[in-house]
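User: Sequence for MFS transporter below. Tokens please.
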Amino acid sequence: MQSNKINSIVIFITITIILDSAGFGIIFPVLPELLEHVLHADLSTAAKYGGVLTLAYAFMQFIFAPILGVISDRYGRRRVLLLSLFGFSIDCFIMALAHSYWLLFISRLIAGVTGATFAVASATITDVTDEGNRTKYFGYLNAAFNIGFIIGPLVGGLLGEYHFTYPFYFAGILGLLNVIYGYFFFPETNTSRSLMRLSLKEISPLQSLKSIKRFKQLSLLFIVFFLLSAASHSMESTWSFYTMIQFDWSKQQVGISLTIIGIIGFLVQAYLLQYLSTKLSDQRLVYIGLLTSFIGLLLLSYCVTEIQLWVGITLYLLGSIQQTGFQSMLSKSLDQQHQGELQGVLGSLNGLTTIVAPPVFTYCFYLYTQDNTLPYLPGIAFAIAALLLLISLLLLLRYKK
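Assistant: Structure tokens for MFS transporter:
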């Protein structure tokens, strides 16, 4: 394929990934006010219903991610990505115009169906590159995802200060413009597609979970992975609600804080981790990371000043070095021919935690921020996450023995 055609495809895919991740992040600063407006309720109650919206989104992603991947293999990448982008725009406009909670719920279902595009985008890159330059282009995809998650909350916070619907209109219009661009400049890349019927086995999101019984020797590590993945959702589920109720932050402050968090997380993964991985073993990375994040979450749970808040979140992000160390531990536990199957299991486990954890965290936030609640603890989600990290650390110490 000609280089200029590859470049136009990569540009479209990069914009799509940025929009996808930014669209997920843009909602965080404005969701509390949107729910308060729709429900005519306080911030505490809004958090509870926000968890249900997250559940709807995550459940549809869990179901449709493998379906979209298989459909793109059968019928082509182009139509899947264009329809997904169009669905993304429709979801944004529904969120902006919604005057009832049920409309918000339906829009989150649509977003979950059409938002599972990263796998299809990755497959597109595989279609148009060879092994020599594929890693470079995959790097572009990962960078695009991080960029989107950094700018999404910032845009949401800044535009949300004028009106909480503006971020959704902005994202929806960008999505439609990308649909138009893709319609004219994004050709079909899957030249080996077929029109064979889909089987239920091929599109089942539970298929990879059946592989767990094949890896009984890793059962303890799978439990740890599930706990760590669940704990990671405490931040995205309650950060906006927590900072607004505890420190009376505005949407702009929430958006800027999430952008700063994204930048710190990127620097930790891109630079600190690269340095430490040459100095420490995988196990030491995991132990140090878990302990650091545990301390950070405890500070977040009980902080009363913004200085304590930023110290806590910084320690939590520094501790994210455990993620890479733990993934390396897992991969080294199996031979090469089972790596793909292992990643499928981990993806399914992560999908399950995305369904289960956010509603639990937001409901606990609701319970512990009621007027007559004792103890009054807005940071309850971080306290639970800290407990999950402590259990994970103890299980890993047992696994080592």
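The mean pLDDT is 85.
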